[in-house]
Amino acid sequence: MVLDGVLQHSQAESSNILVESTVAWVATNDASPLKGQDVEKLWYDILKNTTDTPMPAPDCSGRCHKDVTEDEIRLNAQGFLLSPQTLARTQFANALLQASQGDVTLLSTSLPEIYTWSLYVGLAIGCQDWALRTSSFEDFQAKIRIGEVFAPLNKGASQSWSLQASCIGWPAPLANPPAKLKVQTKDPILMVSVIRDPSTSYTWAVGMLEEIENHVLLTRNGDGHTSWGFGGVTTDAINHFLVTTEPPAPGTVLDS
């Protein structure tokens, strides 16, 4: 078995909102239109300019919100960071560049996503996994403060953040509460995790080393969510394990 991107379901809800990523790539990569700029300052300036008044998204034409708030920008940024491909990072850099010039079309929320059935299916499933129905708005405000202090770039805005906000007061019974596992298998499980995965944090993978006894952790020193679809040497290592059942050496770190 291979776990490509590892979720830990035993941590506290407050810990999960700190899953985040970095925008350092857009300031250092040759393919980025923002290379050499102070991207952190640019990011904060964009957020500041949309805190009180939404910024227009003139090219949406009914496909997305005609203007964008600070919260939308912080949440939608994660979508650009999921892919390990350079193209996605370039698109994110272009989105930030256009936003700094007053056009946030690329960071606007797509209108079809608001009404798609998959959004509600994901919400219904996710709300079976956490005890958030017992939380209150005041409790969530405390979590927001955690994000503001420990993850100032995005204030903790992520899939976990939006799920926790949406599941407060969820009426259906809790089916899968958080619990620490004790997985014991005859053959090793290959756990693959990316250092800068904005969806399934490397912290979760390291935490699951305590819960999966017969394991080998393979680390990709890179960006994006999961590794197999990237097609690098990590993909080759996964394929080799699936075909031969020979895992990489413990502690292996690959760069692609």
Automatic annotation (TrEMBL):
Pfam families: Abhydrolase_4
Residue ranges occupied by any Peptidase S33 tripeptidyl aminopeptidase-like C-terminal domain in the UniProt entry: 156-253
Name of the protein in question: Peptidase S33 tripeptidyl aminopeptidase-like C-terminal domain-containing protein
